[in-house]
Request: fold
Amino acid sequence: MPHFKHVQNGICFLCRGGDGQYINPVIERQEQEARLREKALQYEVEFQHSRSMYLSERESHYRSLSENDLFDLWTQRESLDLEQDEIELIRKILRQIKGISSIEKPALHVCADCGMVGSNCTCRKV
Reply:
């Protein structure tokens, strides 16, 4: 009978035996993927937060070390299997101790009218 062709053994093909509401499999899959993306994003946020806390603790520890001990850590960094962000932290602290800090470049102002930078501005509104 044509009006029962969507039902087999009492299970509706449209709602899959649910509470009578049709569930579109494509939409259901999209919703599931969205939930998984949200969960992955939440995990990433939690991971970044915990990593930030860990690096903050490590920075305190590294700053408490003598220059020689810190330099020894730097030379052994490959064998210690440190993450790149922790290596960069040790590098930054060593450079600060030795007085080799990176020179910050002055911020360049771009003119909104002519699009030129600083003294190259042709409209002289900078």
